[in-house]
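Quick one: structure for this chain?
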Amino acid sequence: MTGILVLAGTPIGDISDAPPRLAEELAGADVVAAEDTRRLRRLTQALGVTPKGRVVSYFEGNETARTPELVEELAGGARVLLVTDAGMPSVSDPGYRLVAAAVERDVKVTAVPGPSAVLTALALSGLPVDRFCFEGFLPRKAGERLGRLREVAQERRTLVYFEAPHRLDDALAAMAEVFGGERRAAVCRELTKTYEEVKRGPLAELAAWAAEGVRGEITVVVEGAPEKGAEEIDDAELVRRVRVREEAGERRKEAIAAVAVEAGLPKRQVFDAVVRAKREAGEGSR
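Got it. Here's what it folds into:
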């Protein structure tokens, strides 16, 4: 008989949020695969449980090499428990490769539901939560970051991002540039921890706030794009969209064509708006 793979959610801050089944699974699994074995040790001590099975590391650096080993354990009948440092495995954390490999071998996969920074931030944001997209971490490089944001600039659903504290100001500034500084957002910091904070406001204001420095684990929730008819998009907005695409690496001709399509306008109208803006900028510098 084949074994079973158990994906277990772990607390994102407050240890008392650990689901009751987590302690049972930690105690009873044949193999515990942990993103960080030291953090696992602190978790088990806090829960007052001692794993009976073998504990192995399973993180980004060894995920590819260790997956076949764990699949063989599963194929041999083992109960393998996968935990990450915080939240649910596979959600911007190790786990996807192991789940896919287990499914390929017809191994049963189940989960111990637990805390989620994504859902917690959504609930606290004050923004619509009926439809949302999780976008994970943005690219580190500025051009790639702008390109990724541009892909979802017209997304109507609420957007959720993870971000490192030292890159938060750049990320929010890029969002304000691509989505518009008036777009509502919420920066959720240190969720469920002692210094939990939710900062809400327009992206431009949040970017200015983050420029002063922010610490902790960060989840950003951004309002989806509003419905806009073609007649509501003025020349300044058309020019801004073209500029964002150009800065992300597109040629002007391609940028104008793409903006025309997304705005539902003739290319000539967008082209004329860009030409007028360029002419006005030249006259203003005299």
